[in-house]
Every structure is written in structure tokens, then in C-alpha cells.
Amino acid sequence: MEFVVVFLVSLFVLMLLVVGLLFGRAPTYRPDREYVLSLMQGIDDRSTTEQAWSLFIHTPISHDTELEGFRRRCYQFDQGEVDSVTARPGLNGYLYDLQGRNYIKQMATELEEFIRNAPLTVDF
């Protein structure tokens, strides 16, 4: 009797696993332009978490080449590869100091202008 119970429970768990693998999909990171803009603006008002920012700058964006350019610039800034400004940690919950926040704010303005001037496209 114990064998039958163990067999049925194991069969149920395996069937759940098979159904999950058949109908599930791999997790993807596909941020849109408005989300990235909100991340950049959140650097200045402390609404962007360190985890969300780190995920953005360390994960390549393959579905939008223009957005990948902005991500690379943010990554280069974070790694200290920009000559005009150094990425220093901020105080009181800010991710960067005032100079770094101004640099990200400038990039956010560029991204906002890019979003505003982007042509409308429809995928069929």
C-alpha cells in the first residue's frame, strides 16, 4: 500500500514538472524605453533600487540597439571609463554623488528626447 501512495505522489510531481516544461518559457529581460527612462530618472529621486540599476547596466539588450547604446554608456560611467566624470557612491540613499546624478540626468534627457522623436512603428 505504501508503494502505491509513493508511486502516485511521484507520478503527480513528475506530471506537474512535464506540464511546466511544456507550457513554460525561459525568463527574459526585455526592458522598454520608458522603463529605462524611469530607471534613469529614479537615480535622481532615489526611487531606483541598486538591484534594478545593476540588472540594467550589466545585462545586454539585444532587442533594441539604440537602447543598448544608452545601456553601454551607463555601464561605462559605472565602471569609471568616462573621462569627464567619475562614478562615486552617493550618500543618504543615492546611488551616485551629485556629479554622477547630473551625468545620468543628462543621459535621461537625451533618452527622453530620443523617445519623443522616435518614429511610430507597428508590428504586423
Automatic annotation (TrEMBL):
The chain crosses the membrane at residues 6-24. It comes from Amphritea atlantica. This is Uncharacterized protein. Keywords: Membrane, Transmembrane, Transmembrane helix.
